[in-house]
Amino acid sequence: MADVFISYARASESMAQTIGDALRSLGFGVWRDDELAPHRDYTDEIEERLRAAKAVLVVWSAEAVRSQWVRAEANVAREAGTLVQLRVDDVALPLPFNQIQCADLSRWSGEHNHAGWRKVAESVALLVGREPAALATPVEQEIQFCRAADGVRIAYAKVGNGPPLLKTANWLNHLEFDWDGPVWRDLFRRISAGRTLVRYDERGNGLSDRDVEALTLEGYVRDMEAVADAAGLERFPVFAISQGGCVAIEYAARHPERVSRLVLLNAFAHGWRSWSSGLVAAAEAIKVLMAQAWGTESPAFRQMFTTLMIPGGSPQQWDWFDRMQRATTSPRNAARMFESFGQMDVRHRLAEVRAPTLVLHSRDDQLVSSIHGQEIAAGIAGARFVGLASNNHILLDDEPALVRLGNEVRAFLAQD
């Protein structure tokens, strides 16, 4: 049985998911009712999980204080001495729960150093029987370096605990900026909950060597091979986004004995050079502008590219992503990498992938049409396709599609 049971009202499902992921990243076993077994009577299983939990975390919201179900679960926990309370709305708690300490997470967005979150994590640790010291400190990543087969230096990072998950590089990564940035932060935490996440900056950008010749699919696969070896990974699942999907597919075809599962998000099997004539013309124009305008003081071009990536982003997220792109690589490398992504083609490799595969794609992706995700799923034997209700190429923290992604990936990897 799981250490922690989370009680919440349906309107707070996204917050409950974030809380669950944060607790899993600290090594706790967590259960909430989205994990109900399909063959069990839900009332029986909920009661069984509730009474077996060492800590019952009640998420009080405006809806929860009116819910007889949440109140009943909270009362069972109160009587058992396993109750941990937190408030996500400015509401008065019902009797007798207003007489018990309650952490305020109304302004919390997942930071491990938030005062209210520290109280929650420490209370859970004490009830579960773990040392609470340092539980709620920020999760620190360990950055190291290795060499690809052609001598290029590649930076990679490990973070978290548990079985490994290797994420391939995608458009312009920077290990130091990405981890706590407002665009990638929540996605990374959702896919890696309860795991050791291994990420890297591919050649040409980030902390890896930038002055390199081989900006090609072959070079990018060498980067992935070097990181997997340096990190000591033997057999492991792979998570890939966008053109990182081509790299992951090629790696999986070459090394079937090492890839246990494959998760692809908004990916394609062949780059823009082989798309329709209209899209090729548009991409050519983007590449020209990229080489000429990337390094100028005016952010107009980079902002255009940013809005293709995250049209649903906030001004803060757009600004951060724009600044991150500029800091991550040079104008020349940006144009060279963009061209190399256009030339990628691993369609002939799809039938050679042996790993169980999950393909997820934003239905209204403004950069890579969902047709490309469907093509991958059709080409890999037994692959499952999931359409996500989003127009973002990079899923963001405030959209339900990210919750769906986290649930799908967690369930899929649990079968590994």
Q: Can you tag this structure with a few keywords?
A:
416 residues; alpha/beta; 8-stranded mixed sheet; 13 strands; elongated
What can you see in these coordinates?
- This protein has 416 residues and is of the alpha/beta class.
- The chain is 40% helix and 16% strand.
- The chain has helices at residues 13-25, 42-52, 68-80, 115-128, 175-178, 185-192, 217-230, 244-254, 277-293, 300-309, 315-328, 331-343, 370-379, 400-413, and strands spanning 4-7, 30-31, 55-60, 83-87, 102-104, 142-147, 153-160, 164-167, 196-201, 236-241, 259-265, 357-362, 384-388.
- Strands 6-7-9-8-10-11-12-13 form an eight-stranded mixed sheet, with helices on both faces.
- Helix 7 (217-230) packs across helix 8 (244-254) and helix 10 (300-309) packs across helix 11.
- The radius of gyration is 22 Å and the shape is elongated.
Brief synopsis:
The chain has 416 residues and is of the alpha/beta class.
What percent of residues are in strands? 15-25%
> Which runs of at least 5 residues are low in confidence (pLDDT < 50)?
none
User: Counting H and I runs of at least 4 residues, what is the number of helices?
Assistant: 14
Strand order in the largest sheet: 6-7-9-8-10-11-12-13
Q: In whole angstroms, how far apart are the ends?
A: 19 Å
Could you state the oligomeric state of the chains shown?
Answer: single chain
Q: Sketch the topology as an H/E string, one letter per element.
A: EHEHEHEEHEEEHHEHEHEHHHHEHEH
Radius of gyration: 22 Å
The residue fraction in helices comes out at 25-40%
Mean pLDDT score, rounded?
A: 89
What does the overall shape look like? Answer: elongated
> Which structural class matches the secondary elements?
alpha/beta
The beta-strand count equals: 13
Largest sheet: 8 strands, mixed
